[in-house]
Amino acid sequence: QVQLVESGGGLVQAGGSLRLSCVASGRTFSRFTMGWFRQAPGKERDFVAAISWSGVYTYYADSVKGRFTISVNNAKNTVYLQMNSLKREDTAVYYCAYSSGIRAGQGTSSYDYWGQGTQVTVSS
Q: 66 or 29, which is more confident?
């Protein structure tokens, strides 16, 4: 089993920034993909960004390209999501996800483990 713990969520004004962190522990893999998804009330869980274990491959949803940056510290089994120029529509619970696949896709079914989520609220 892999356990994921997110941190860094909170309340921020529109235009502001937040950095989310996710630490993976337990029976982690030497090669993996980690990603971020988000879910707003009444909506489906949507892909935000993903990164390969090496950091070479990164993927972003169109809605966050140019504003969000995903990065990984392989030695610490930690993935980060730097969120800049936040908008009200970024408000959601953000979930960290972990896949034993080295190039997992954007679908939730590609990921084997999930964190509990961290709330991000962007006010106007």
A: 66
Distance of CA 76 to the CA centre of its chain: 16
Query: Among 70, 74, 61, which residue's Cα sits nearest to residue 24?
Result: 74
- State the average pLDDT for the chain: 95
pLDDT digits (tens, 9 = 90+) for 9-29: 999 999 999 999 999 999 988
Please say whether the beta carbons of 37 and 70 come within 8 A: no
- Count of CB atoms within 10 A of residue 111's CB? 25
Distance of CA 109 to the CA centre of its chain: 15
Instruction: Please check the confidence at residue 74 and state whether its pLDDT lies above 90.
Output: no
DSSP of the chain, one letter per residue? -EEEEEE--EEEETT--EEEEEEEEES--SS-EEEEEEE-TTS--EEEEEEETTS--EEE-TTTTTTEEEEEEGGGTEEEEEE-S--GGG-EEEEEEEESSTT--SSGGG-SEE---EEEEEE-
